[in-house]
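Researcher: I'd like a structural prediction for the single chain below. Treat it as a standalone chain; there are no partners to consider.
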Amino acid sequence: MDHKIYILIVEDELEVMDALVKDLEKFETFFPVETANDATEAEEVIDYILDHDHKIGLILCDHVLPGKNGVDLLIELQQNPKTAISKKVLVTGQAGHEDTIMAINKADLDHYIAKPWTEDELEKVVRDELTDYVLSNEDNLLYYMQVLDAEKISDAMRKNKMTDH
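Model: Treating it as a single chain, here is the predicted structure.
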């Protein structure tokens, strides 16, 4: 494939970041994982990925970060046409209702995961969000069948085949 679709984790607690990275290992062959400790580093990683003609399919972002908080970062990313299509998941134990509502309304938040999460819960959310991203933004769906929601991808491929005739 010419371009890669990245998963970006924005988390300032090293133990939490390591746990997220470990729980996402099964996706990494198809979706390289990048990490950032704060919003500024996340913006640099995003610029680097986009400057190299790759995409960001999923952003897993903590709310409480040094400097700019995660909700504000996700809102800014939603306002950028290059990252607005990225799926956005808030992974936090500390966002209040107001922050969460703001993330849903202004950052087009796709999902909220409360800390601590279970590996199964995280895997399901990541699989669902990346499947939706791929269905909306990629042509070669077959490539992703073994790691994403094969049933949804098969249905989409059947529908595409029917509309091609």
